[in-house]
Amino acid sequence: MQQQQVTSPAGQQQVRRVAVVGTGVIGASWVAYFLARGLEVTATDPMPGAEQKLREAVARHWPSLEVLGLAPGASQQGLRFCERLEDALDGADFVQENGPEREDLKIALFQRMDAALPAHVILASSSSGLLMSKVQAACTHPERVVLGHPFNPPHLIPLVEVIGGALTSPQAVQGALDFYTAIGKKAIHVRKEVKGHIANRLQAALWREAFHLVEQGVASTEDVDTAIAYGPGLRWALMGPFMNLDMSGGEGGIGHMLDHLGPPIESWWADLGTPAITESLKATLREGVAQQMQGKSAVDIAAERDQLLVKLLAAKRQTKFIP
Fold it and tell me: Pick from 64, 186, 251, 281: CA 20 to 30 A from residue 120's CA?
């Protein structure tokens, strides 16, 4: 079977084999995506039964990836599972780490990976909020450590946020950006380290007001979900907030829009809530979501969500002007 090769951004090598460290929900999704792009994958995870769960997850994801289109040589047979971390890293051209969100564990894991691989191999973390400046601190070659944060589920959602730590080289950042772009991702460079990066911070801002509205009795959890899913969420799935603002301004664009709606927007900002996630609020949210889920299977909802995502992504590929 002919495996795909992806030119590394730094131009130093061909990325033929990716090592995926940690194969939970995010790691398994990454494995499926890398395989679908025609790459070899070696994977490792210390949890009992990890290999079987991984192969089952890849099999579940594969039909969606087939609809989106497989690269030449793409096959589930390109996956090799290793018990030992060092065995999984052997011969890897790129590493995607997906371990637990604990700084001490990440530091120790990256130190171990750094010791096992040649200095040119990029070590990327899927961390949702940890800073690479701390994660890379114990590495002999911290310059090749980057954050490559996907959006769940990575096998379908194109976004990847790339961030370097204080000791990361510009070449490693560009290398990661180029690699992700070459395999079909929408990679963006986050220029400063901040907690939660970009997309999670934007989500957190929305969650804060969503929690506040429920806490204050303004809306139910279902009302909030409906407001987003059948309102701005539909536009956001097509274009981001700034392009949507520009479109709202008509011929005058975003400048005209802000001239007229700037003061009201500022007044809304001033009125936004700052809720605390108390036990009472958690109970309210659990009860609200439970009511929404009555008679529905989370597995069935996820499968239907993925089918819709595949159709949306396919449609977006056909557009001329919407990025």
Answer: 186
